[in-house]
Design goal:
Layout: H1 10-31, H2 46-67, H3 74-88, H4 94-116, H5 120-140, H6 145-167, H7 175-194, H8 199-220, H9 232-258, H10 265-295, H11 305-325, H12 328-358
Helix pairs in contact: 1-2, 1-3, 1-12, 2-3, 2-4, 3-4, 4-5, 5-6, 6-7, 6-10, 7-8, 8-9, 9-10, 10-11, 10-12, 11-12
Bound molecules: protoporphyrin IX containing FE (HEM).
């Protein structure tokens, strides 16, 4: 295939990756590692940086590139600048305002996509964007992060679920399966909304929906069939996705079994089973598709990709066991190794793009 490098997305990608690195630094501080604070608000901004600064920028950027519309670059610009302002300027809510505007832009992009193609997967992604906007607005108006974090989770889960549904169209889920998918998404959203009034019941309902979504994907997503595919890249992607779905179900099980958590190790476990186990694993798997699409350069598959994949999942198991066993030091190490896996992934991705470009 012939690729033409596209430089336009590079500054946005740079802001997103910088946002990720700042969020990782903040995550280590939140775990208890003694590090320089860099800016007074950095540690507490870990969540918004990860969700909006890194992923919000990356997701809206991917859409802007795919849709080839200039105005669609505004949301990734707003979220890229929004996280910077959030950590640099204290006292004024300018950063959260920019992030809320970015998510409004995300809703505008998805509305346009649904207008062009009204389908279950595009509507699911639109609900994801609306959840991002709702979470950002509540946060802007002073709600605590632990009260809005499930809206942010819905943003990522529904965005990814919608994309997987689109990519699984090869398998053509039956009408009944599509209706089931729609019902699961509706139950998930209902649980998150209900949690605003009754945190325990709402959290358990959305937890149940996550388990059902994982089971639905087990049956309908192409990933499971590709675990033994003869092409190494396809096989690697399948492992990333399949492990991600397993974590989605585990997180749902933790929410269903233990109910809502508002702080501390169990809060850490419920959130990161989804954010790291599902979301980051999906990113590992989608990177060989997303980066060539954004940058116009292919990624050369390396068997060493399995190193960061294995490290991510093993260290997450360690972290979550430590969370439930109240083993503080082990939890710190588990979290640190999660980050090492992400850094290796970035390094490997850059290396394989360069290798492909140099033609070796
Ligand atoms: C990769 C390594 C990561 C580390 C070491 C880390 C660390 C932490 C810690 C220690 C907390 C506080 C939990 C508690 O209250 O005990 C936290 C909260 C949170 N994390 Fe992470 N995290 C990581 C990745 C992620 C990712 C990938 C995302 C999103 C995609 C994410 C989103 C969040 C959110 C939204 C919160 C809630 C923030 C709050 O309540 O202020 N984290 N993280």
């Amino acid at each position: 295939m012939k690729f033409t490098p596209n430089r336009l997305p590079l500054p946005f990608l740079f802001l997103a990756i910088l946002g990720l690195l700042a969020a990782l630094w903040a995550g280590l501080m939140r775990l208890g590692w003694q590090l320089p604070a860099l800016t007074p608000s950095l540690a507490m901004a870990h969540g918004p940086l990860m969700i909006s600064g890194f992923l919000g920028t990356l997701i809206t950027l991917e859409r802007a590139v795919a849709m080839k519309q200039k105005w669609m670059y505004l949301p990734p610009l707003l979220s890229g600048l929004g996280w910077l302002v959030t950590v640099l300027i204290r006292g004024l809510p300018l950063g959260p305002v920019l992030l809320a505007l970015a998510s409004l832009g995300g809703v505008a992009i998805l509305t346009e996509i649904v207008r062009r193609e009204s389908a279950l997967h595009t509507v699911t992604m639109l609900f994801g964007a609306l959840a991002w906007l709702a979470g950002n607005l509540l946060w802007l108006f002073g709600w605590q992060i632990n009260q809005v974090v499930f809206f942010w989770m819905a943003f990522l889960v529904l965005t990814i679920a919608g994309e997987r549904l689109e990519l699984s169209r090869v398998l053509r889920p039956s009408r009944v399966q599509q209706i089931l998918f729609g019902i699961i998404v509706a139950v998930f959203l209902a649980g998150i909304l209900f949690a605003l009034f009754n945190l325990q019941v709402g959290t358990r309902v959305s937890g149940l929906a996550l388990i059902l979504l994982a089971l639905w994907s087990l049956r309908n997503d192409i990933a499971w069939r590709n675990l033994r595919h003869k092409l190494p890249l396809t096989r690697y992607i399948a492992w990333c996705l399949a492990l991600g779905f397993v974590w989605l179900g585990i997180s749902g099980g933790l929410s269903l079994g233990f109910g809502a958590q508002v702080a501390g190790p169990r809060y850490d476990a419920v959130l990161h089973a989804v954010f790291i186990g599902f979301v980051i694993s999906m990113i590992f798997g989608h990177a060989p598709i997303i980066f060539p699409a954004i940058l116009g350069v292919p990624i050369n598959f390396q068997p060493a990709f399995y190193i960061h994949l294995a490290l991510l999942h093993v260290s997450l198991v360690v972290r979550i066991i430590a969370d439930y066993a109240n083993l503080h030091t082990l939890r710190m190490w588990g979290g640190l190794l999660n980050e090492v896996a992400i850094i290796i992934f970035i390094g490997m991705t850059v290396y394989s793009i360069r290798k492909e470009l140099s033609g070796k």
